[in-house]
Amino acid sequence: MIAAHLRQISRSIWVLGMVSLFMDMSSELVHSLLPVFVVSVFGASTLTLGLIEGVAEATASLTKLISGLLSDHLGQRKLLAVIGYGLAALTKPLFPLAGTVGLVVTARFVDRIGKGIRGAPRDALVGDIAPAHLRGACYGLRQSLDTVGACVGPLLAVAFMVVLANDIRAVLWIAVIPACLAVLLLVVGVDEPPHLRAAARVKPPLRLADVRQLGAAYWWVVLIGGMLTLARFSEAFLVLCAQDVGLRIALVPLVMAVMSGVYALASYPAGIIADRTDRRTLLAVGFTVLIAADLVLAGARGVAAVMVGAALWGLHMGLTQGLLATLVADTSPAHLRASAFGLFNLASGLVLFAASVVAGLLWDSYGAPATFLAGAGFTAVSLLALLLRPRRAAADAALSSPPPRPRSPRS
After folding, report:
1. Which architecture, in CATH terms, is 11-188+215-400?
2. What DSSP assignment string belongs to 19-70?
3. Which range is most confident: 170-174, 190-194, 249-253?
4. Total-model pTM
């Protein structure tokens, strides 16, 4: 079944996935070392790390809204994606060059602006290209390839930390190469549907009020995504947890590799399941796995337990992230699809900012267990809200009813 799905997916979807793979390889190589770099090299507090991560992600989310609105209005997906990926590639040298926390914050901030510019147009482009009955599989494939890069990046970080004798700055320079490859591949390998620009020519001036056309089903998906993000703070705290239990600095990126590896393996099968089954059930399973991850990490006293918690965290991501993207695409009109992704990511980013700051405060005040126990509590409340909402509500239609598959012509 998986092989049959893969053959039906267009070249542009595959290339978008490979672009994500190379850029995430670069970003996660940096991200897997950044918490140690900030806390150990510059002596910053965990709260400072939480603020850096929260501001960075909130910035990306606000930019996604603006970029999404522009993409729908201009009929441009690829151009904005190239600008976003290009800006992210240009920031990679700033990390190894940083002499103060301020420059690290600046680099992270600008890098997330690039992510924000590319995110909504790219996600909308997947929805534009993918057939409705394969949309979950297409989003799952792109997410899976993205996460393969997120797995390889930390592994490269470990390898080069060993080879370069824990010289973090030298290792951070390696991240420049895959970032540049991602931009080149996007420029030459992705075709944009021609109808987008034609539709944009007849549009009225850009208006934020256009988002009123997004219905109740879409806003219910935004609410679910926000609840889930509140319960799941920055993955930087997984790295700190591994360091807390004694994993030596050169091997700390392995925790992100484990998380991303499971995430990559789960994303595409979860996308296929989302095309064929009740989506509320799949989301509920994802919430339950996150509770298990938080409880394991809260009680972790050794490296093995942290790795199990990271694997469960990755499984939760694989079950939920591609599905949420599919739901956004399914519940928004095609001419507002990028705006819908922008709004969704804005809401999630603002919530992630709050969650990361709270996680940093809890960690500094009460230690790692309190941070993860709070995450488990938020997730449990969110799971109850998902399960107790009446199924008969019209806004739940997309959660329980995947798009119908086209009928094969009679022979």
Report:
1. Up-down Bundle (1.20)
2. HHHHHHHHHHHHHHHHHHIIIIIS---HHHHHHHHHHHHHHHHHHHHHHHHH
3. 170-174
4. 0.71
